[in-house]
Amino acid sequence: MSDRFVVLSGCSGGGKSRLLAELGNRGYAVVDEPGRRIVREQLAHGGTALPWIDLAAFARRAMQVALADREEVKGQSRWVFFDRSWVDAASALEHAVDEPVLEPLGSVHRYYSKVFFTPPWPEIFHSDPERRHGLSEAIAEHERLERAYARLGYRVVVLPKASVEARANAVLAELASTT
Predict the structure, then answer these.
(1) Ordered alpha helix ranges (H), 26-163
(2) Of the candidates 55, 96, 75, the residue with the CA atom closest to the CA atom of residue 2
(3) C-beta atoms surrounding 164 within 10 Å
(4) Is the pLDDT at 1 greater than 50, yes or no?
């Protein structure tokens, strides 16, 4: 477990990546979303572990990448911010195969007790070549993730629909209030 590993999760297209970039610009260690990296890799090499082709294979790969990411930054002494986590990937896998996946890993590979969620925000949501689903699918995923993190005992902190700077300030203020 690392009490310095902070997850940004929530609605796809809700501004997580921009928030992560802002935190990185402020000098914090950041880890990019596994899913985006996998999609780029799969598209570049003609792979099929893509959420719109084989969600289960994609989710399994995302779990591997997210767990490897944790190992890569385990020596950090300051906050490390993750754009999504293995929990997000395991939730997708449970959705794809309808089998329990979360609980066996949930007590071993912990993150900081609060997870920061970007809520559905239709005004900024957009699809792109790496995000081919629509807003309704993103909202359904958001709801599954809220339940998944709650099942594992995390406290979900929903971020305001505000500027990226205000969101970063809110995250850092919440972290400062609990240290």
Answers:
(1) 34-45, 55-72, 86-97, 102-106, 135-151
(2) 75
(3) 16
(4) no
Task: Check pLDDT > 90 for residue 112.
Answer: yes
Coarse DSSP helix, strand, coil percentages of the chain, rounded to the nearest 5 percent = 50, 15, 40
More confidently predicted of 163 and 177: 163
pLDDT of 134-163, one tens digit each?
557 877 888 989 999 999 999 999 999 999
Structure token pair of residue 2: 């690392």
CA distances from 126 to 24, 58, 135, 146 (A): 23, 21, 8, 21
Q: Which of 158, 80, 153 is nearest to 110 (CA)?
A: 153
**Angle, CA 156 vertex, CA 164 and CA 86 arms, to 5°:** 90
pLDDT value at residue 175:
94
Considering the segment(s) 5-176 as one domain, its CATH architecture is: 3-Layer(aba) Sandwich (3.40)
- End-to-end CA distance of the chain: give it in Å, rounded: 16
32 in Cβ contact with 83 (< 8 Å): yes
pTM greater than 0.85: yes
Minimal CA–CA distance to 149: which of 96, 106, 100, 94?
106
2 pLDDT more than 80: no
Residue 143 sits at φ, ψ, to 5 deg, of -65, -40
